[in-house]
Amino acid sequence: MRIDIISCVPQLLESPLSYSIVKRAKDKGLVSVFIHDLRDYATGKHKKTDDYSYGGGAGMVMMIEPVYKVIKKLTRQRKYDEIIYLSPDGELFDQPMANKMSLMKNIILLCGHYKGIDQRIREHLITKEISIGNYVLSGGEIAAAAITDTLVRLIPGALSDETSALTDSFQNSLLSPPIYTRPADFKGWKVPDILLSGDHEKISQWLDEQAIARTKALRPDLLK
Ligand code: ADE
């Protein structure tokens, strides 16, 4: 899978995409992530990527031309499954959407900044808009990092334990059951006896029950 991220503050993306599982997946060649600095495509001597909005109103607007240039350069080189704009107006990102997207070959993630982007970019260049939640971030970078991280862990081989992503919370619309590690007793805080019993069938049944009970208690909306 190849992910191209377009941003005017690429520094915001560096660290979340340089460690842990995303780094390992990149090193293994399972995913390529390219970050494109929008300023490299800006024209004029001030290398502007934003301008005042027509009709007034507060806030700067991301200009068409730099975005057009970078997207055209990329789409001339390969076909993209989706050209995505990160925006609170978009479809809400969730695990089923992530599962579908993880099967794609090439995607572009465009991070907005300022008050927004020129509407004509959305009409003519963007194929999908995604929001990561009902709140407003200062830019799309944190959303792009969250989406990239979510997709990468779904690529077969990205996690050391192949079954891990399948047992993630939400993968079956349930939260994960509680987990424990040694010691079995920490200052009187005990690991449930069942987990020490060695009876794998009973343990598996208990974990299922716990997942359902936790989902009912904490996220009943997932069971609807
Ligand atoms: N940009 C600003 N807010 C956002 C959000 N909630 N999701 C995705 N991109 C955004």
Give average pLDDT, whole number: 95
CATH-assigned fold name of the largest domain: Alpha/beta knot
N/C terminus separation:
33 Å
Second rung of CATH, namely the architecture of the largest domain: 3-Layer(aba) Sandwich
Please characterize this protein's 3D structure:
There is one protein chain. The protein is an alpha/beta fold. It folds into two domains: 2-152, SPOUT methyltransferase, trefoil knot domain (Alpha/beta knot, 3-Layer(aba) Sandwich), CATH 3.40.1280; 169-223, Orthogonal Bundle (Trp Operon Repressor, Chain A), CATH 1.10.1270. Helices cover 33% and strands 20% of the residues. The chain is built from eight helices and ten strands. The strands form three sheets. Strands 2-1-6-5-8 form a five-stranded parallel β-sheet, sandwiched between helices. Strands 3-4-7 form a three-stranded mixed β-sheet. The longest helix has 19 residues, at 200-218. The protein is elongated and about 70 Å long. The two termini are 33 Å apart. The chain binds adenine. Adenine binds next to strand 5.
